[in-house]
Amino acid sequence: MGKGKRKKGGGAGRTFAVLGGRHELEVRSLTWTSEQIELFYRITPALPERWADEPDGSMTEAGPPIYLSLEAKDDLGGEYTDGGGAFGTDPEGRFTEGSLSLQPGPAPGAGSLALALSLTCGEQQSTHRIDMPL
User: Fold this and answer.
1) Is the sign of the CA dihedral 45, 46, 48, 52 positive or negative?
2) Are strands 23-32 and 7-8 parallel, antiparallel or unpaired?
3) Neighbouring residues of 68: CB distance < 8 A, sequence distance ≥ 6
4) Interatomic CA distance for residues 129 and 2, integer angstroms
5) Phi-psi region of 76 (alpha: psi -120 to 50; beta: other; left: phi over 0)
6) Burial of 78 per CB tally in 10 Å (0-12, 13-18, 19+)
7) What is the DSSP letter of 111?
8) How many CB atoms lie within 10 A of CB 39?
9) What are phi and psi of 78, to 5 degrees?
10) What local confidence, expressed as pLDDT, does residue 69 receive?
11) pLDDT of 52 strictly over 50
């Protein structure tokens, strides 16, 4: 987490179909500090697991590779680059939750972000544009 007080923006609760309509992505929240912006999301049903645990403790490939990336531009023309993220499946396998970060934090005076969220699961890819108030 970046330095300074974390702020929270609007736009939570937005949902849209991803990966050919097989999944739904919900924007849970958008928060930021002076150093980074973080988008929290939930995908239902859960994305397929990439690795499976074997009885001997090893792991074998079980599903397709999954990549999420995020870029943004604010209403003042400032650009923000992907700062990484993390995601995981709910213990009961119902959904995948995660977060993606952008760097740097929002410019002083910026009022909104135009986000480009890309999701790749195996051979299937979808990119979505989301306008979020700050």
Assistant:
1) negative
2) antiparallel
3) 85, 87, 98, 100, 117, 118, 119, 120
4) 25
5) alpha
6) middle
7) -
8) 26
9) -70, 145
10) 94
11) yes
Q: pLDDT at residue 3 above 70?
A: no
Integer Cα distance of 37 and 102 in angstroms: 5
What are the pLDDT digits (tens) for 95-119? 999 999 999 999 999 999 999 999 9
Q: Write out the DSSP string of 14-44.
A: -EEEETTTTEEEEEEEEEE-SS-EEEEEEEE
Helix (H) or strand (E) holding 88: strand 79-89
As a whole-number percent, the residues of the chain with pLDDT over 70 amount to: 93
Predicted TM-score (pTM) of the model is 0.84
Q: Which conformational region is residue 71 in: left (phi greater than 0), alpha (psi within -120 to 50 degrees), or beta?
A: beta
Dist. CA 41–CA 14, nearest whole Å: 10
Element (H, E) at 116: strand 112-121
Closest listed residue to residue 132, CA positions, set 71, 87, 88, 84: 71
Report the 10 Å Cβ neighbour count for 113.
25
Q: In whole angstroms, what is the distance from residue 34 CA to residue 109 CA?
A: 12
